[in-house]
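User: ok so my PI wants both of these folded by tonight, can you help

Assistant: No problem, let's get them done. Here's the first:
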Amino acid sequence: MDTTADATIVIIEDDQTIREGYTYLINYTSPYQVVNSYASFDLAKHKIVQDNPDVIILDIQMSGTNGIDAIPILKKLLPQVHIIMLTVHETEKIILEALANGAAGYFTKNTPSSKLIEAIKDVMQGGGPMSPNVAKKVITSLQKNPDSPLTKRETQILNLITKGKDRSQIAAELFIETETVKTHIKNIYLKLNVNSKADAIKVARSNRLV
């Protein structure tokens, strides 16, 4: 017997069009049923235990409590629930925070509904589905060397150097002065014991510093 077939879903999403669209698609093109939907976690928190969903599809940017902070609260209210993030945010920091807080899956809002429906089945079976671009960021993060001698800012700058950015472009992107970038680059060269951009990139890649 397929235990995922009668899974119930709650959607917490502030965009009404997206909320109603996914509700319709899940109810009419999948074996699952959306039992309730809310515009924010703050509206959902008093009723969600009664909804008792198997899966929650959760946005991050909402009025009141954001999705990242809502995850541990939801897991406390419903310990067995599976949470799939559905958001426009795909920065490494936010993805890792969501997963660390207990999210089971992570998708961006341009994900086709068929993939989201597959993801529901996947989390119900113990999987951790993600959009390909999200999975790539998680893998890249795990592949970085935890023993890097570089500071977070130096790593950011080195990463931009490997992408071919010059000092002024780096300064503009990080909202710092060109002279500050110059000082950071000098420190990077000293720490990596190199004298050129090409050597810095080579050492960074071979030691998984970026």
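One down. Here's the second:
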Amino acid sequence: FGGVMDQVRNMMLVTVFVFIGIEGASVYSARAQKRADVGRATVIGFITVLLFLVLVNVLSLGIMTQPELAKLQNPSMAAVLE
């Protein structure tokens, strides 16, 4: 799987791409009153997703050990919150 930093970087790239949806933002950008709003919304969305990503990972690793997390079935976050 590579080093820890490689795994974190790859996971963040995939999650950010999925949640921000660059294609969706470009479609709705034509409806914005100001072009600056599009950039601001993209940055706010990116930071929000990044914060949620970090919080979810810190929460799960703060509650359970890595081997315990590896044994969980999907959706694993439901088991962590339980």
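The chain is about 80% helix and 0% strand. The longest helix spans residues 35-63. Good luck tonight!
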